[in-house]
Design brief:
This protein has 2 domains: about 130 residues, no CATH class; about 200 residues. Helix content is about 10%, strand content about 40%. It has 3 helices and 12 strands, in the order H-H-E-E-E-E-E-E-H-E-E-E-E-E-E. Strands 1, 2, 3, 4, 5, 6, 7, 8, 9, 10, 11 and 12 form a 12-stranded antiparallel beta sheet that branches. It is elongated, with a radius of gyration of 27 Å. The two termini are about 25 Å apart. Bound molecules: calcium ion (3 copies). One calcium ion binds next to loops.
């Protein structure tokens, strides 16, 4: 649902056809400059998806200067020009209710999608469901106290040994959307982790050296976490909640395993992971400062990120995931 709407939103960002100028007080203003006459029903500008001032410059001046209109009236520009309306939304700012959500077009901050609560997290006068998703990027060189997820690598054949492993998130694109009913969603297309240092473990008969390289977490589709938020928190600009069920991911990369004391037992070298199924555990997600920052805190010692048996017959697991993924715009 949210993902389905993403593309239209992006398209709308470029086209910027209509602004949901709304602003509640403007009850009269939009009506007046709409060339008055038949206020209700059947917008005179049938095909004109451009209710903007086609050529008639400021028809508003004809009668009288609109009383209280602060800045809003012109739908063409809402602040930064991001209307948020889907590109195919041509509903004029009239008294009709295009999306049937009980809010007239002229006051609806998202005219073509039902959003009866009119929630607007970032306060840009565009309803959440019409907002362009908030985009976050993890840049190279991000301080490691964030974007570092600690796990345990288990290598097991006849004996088991554990390696502490820190997965540093190098980069990845993450997006956040909020709906009109109290649910936020965070989704990512791919996360790229830094290589790990070489880990060494003695299993009595063999010495295992393990290094995780070129490690990616991907999703069967995009991996999405959703979490509920309360309306008071929403209006205060900071929301948080427990993410929903563990998120399926696909892990790819290379686990470089060397068994130094028994080369006959197994070949050494690279053991590629080819899209191994895995999962991220649930976490505590927060979007604060009206969307300027997002974080996801993982703390689940029982989680299994992925399991794989290498060519040499060693079972490798990444278990437990702790740490904070903090992202900024
Ligand atoms: Ca409406
Ligand atoms: Ca609406
Ligand atoms: Ca908004």
């Amino acid at each position: 649902m949210q993902t389905r709407l993403l593309t239209p939103f992006l398209a709308a960002l470029t086209l910027a056809p209509i602004a949901c100028g709304d602003d509640k007080g403007g009850s009269t203003s939009s009506e007046t400059d709409a060339a008055g006459s038949t206020t209700g029903t059947s917008p005179a500008t049938t095909d004109g998806p451009t209710p903007t001032t086609t050529d008639g410059p400021t028809p508003s001046t004809t009668d009288e200067p609109p009383p209280t209109t602060t800045v809003d009236p012109d739908p063409t520009t809402t602040g930064d020009g991001t209307t948020g309306e889907p590109a195919d939304c041509a509903a004029p700012a009239d008294a009709a209710d295009e999306d049937g959500d009980g809010v007239a077009n002229m006051a609806d901050n998202c005219r073509c999608d039902a959003n009866p609560n009119q929630l607007d997290f970032d306060g840009n006068s565009v309803g959440n469901v019409c907002d362009v998703p908030l985009k976050f990027t993890i840049a190279d060189g991000t301080p490691p106290e964030f974007n570092k997820l600690d796990t345990t690598a288990e290598a097991e054949k006849t004996l088991k040994c554990n390696f502490p492993v820190s997965l540093i998130v190098l980069n990845g694109d993450v997006q956040v959307t909020l709906d009109d009913a109290g649910t936020a969603k965070i989704w990512a297309a791919k996360l790229n982790f830094a290589d790990t240092p070489e880990l060494t473990c003695d299993l009595t008969l063999v010495k295992v050296k393990l290094k995780i390289q070129q490690f990616f977490a991907d999703g069967p589709d995009k991996f999405v976490v959703g979490f509920p938020f309360t309306l008071p928190d929403h209006d205060a600009g900071s929301i948080s909640g427990q993410t929903d069920s563990p998120q399926s991911i696909l892990v790819s990369g290379i686990i470089n395993v060397t068994e130094s004391n028994n080369e006959g037992l197994a070949p050494t070298g690279e053991n590629p992971l080819e899209m191994v199924p895995g999962a991220f555990p649930t976490g505590l997600a927060s979007v604060v400062n009206k969307g300027e920052q997002v974080s996801v805190v993982f703390d689940d010692s029982d989680s299994i990120v992925f399991m794989q048996t290498t060519m040499s017959g060693i079972n490798i697991k990444l278990t437990g995931l702790k740490g904070t993924l903090r992202l900024k715009m």
